[in-house]
Amino acid sequence: MPRFLANSLEVGPRLRTRLHRFLVWGGAAAVPLLFLAFFFAWPVVALVGRGFFEDGTLDLSGFFEVLSRPRTWRLVGITLGQGIAGTVVSLLLGIPGAYVLYRCSFPGRTLARGFVTMPFVLPTVVVGVAFRALFATSGPLGGLGLDGTFWAVLAALVFFNYSVVVRTVGGLWEKIDPRAAQAARTLGASRTRAFLTVTLPQLAPAITSAAAIVFLFCATAFGTVMVLGGQGYGTIETEIWMQTVQFLDLRAAAVLSILQLAVIAVSLWMTSRARAGREQALDLAPAQARTERLNLSSLRRDWLAVLVTLLVGAGLIAWPLVNLMMSAFRRGDTWTLDNFRALSTTGSSASGSSGTLGVTVWEALYNSVVIAFYASVIALSIGGLVAYVVSRRAASRSGRAALTGLENVFMLPLGVSAVTVGFGFLITMNQPLGLDIDLRSNPWLVPIAQAVVAVPLVVRTVLPVLRAIDPRQREVAALLGAPPWRVALTIDWALAARALGLAAGMSFAVSLGEFGATSFLSRPDTATLPIVIFRLISKPGAENYGMALAASVILAVFSAAVMMLAERLRTTSAGEF
Description:
By secondary structure, the protein is mainly α.
């Protein structure tokens, strides 16, 4: 047989194999990309266009009008100040906590880690109500006059983000080899100097990653600010909601959204670079954890870190939650169950008649659970598919770049405000693609919006586990005759089952407490529990306030229970969230 003919026969099957692989993986990537394009990119781009164009023509007058207002720059200053202050305080308190909880060994450490993590999974509205009960006139700290101030919001943001610093920094700290710091001590360096010159540079990638993530969360906080901020306090995030819902000025809201997107874009870029540095540091660190037994000798040496951690645990985390629980069982100066009994009503209006809410709290909880279930299914399907595609090892540089780009694209909803997503849905889903239908009243729109917010968490949870699978296991299964679908089921998804369970729990908990996007799309008869709590806390009357406290306790307990069950499935290779 001529050589050219033999070569052509060999190339034919090879091309067919490559074409088949391209079609399979391209189709797998196309489904989530279409979802992201329709339910995220299009609403956000339409929102940006609303700020630049008026009746189809370029019109920048809206920018000049909004940016010329002193109020706008005051809101920008508050937003940046809130983000920077929340980040600095979270780092100052979280780094000692990371040392105690991840570098030291003591009885009950696992329980302490879970307790510290709990605030991060609580709905933002619940956190706001807990701190409002603490700082209100009738609360334990009411005499300080902090209700409705920057400091009340800052305390709540640190409460929420403390665990991000502890987990991000602690995850690297427990793997750092202590011999370098010990060598510095042997050469005469003090303990403080050894930490500053040896340990701190080693922790820098994790600290930078934690700082970038915390700043992003603080600058885009919505539910907490809405509950705690009061009339005179606001950020870009809350102003977008105010301009849309109360003033019906969509043009101003669009301009503010563009301004916020610029801040978020910088934050996302910093977060991406910081996360890459942290992942590289984790890859270079030894696989085994290194801890020191906490005893009397180490307590004398590490007394400051232990004291800060205890004060944060007792004062910043436990006190607001315990006070919320106790306040829910009080009305006035008496202990009572009336606040919980009233949950089967729709509250009271200013005139004393019933009808503050469109649904009871129990009906709102049912709505929240059902919506969160569907949102979790959608997020798990889309996020799991993205993680599976991105976890492949591409042979070419262009293939690796494409997979990295796909991963980064699906991280965008993590940084874009949920308020922006909900606002984008509001202006694009009235007649999507020119169809004569209004999807804004469709019950599926709320779980889809919540799924958009939850997809990045699924990807970041499942992807590290899939990447940790030894490719030789797939190769052996394929050599034994298993088709690709069976390899995926028996190797990839079997090993990633625990991570999928954790991702499902996280998606459910995030959707259960989602407030930003839902506040734009929820209808009175299908209101979720966070929406109901906000409406109750916004209305005057002791009965409404008591119902808000009781409903917050129920939502907090439900969310914490879901995450406690999910955390039992966490593996060492699961993502940082």
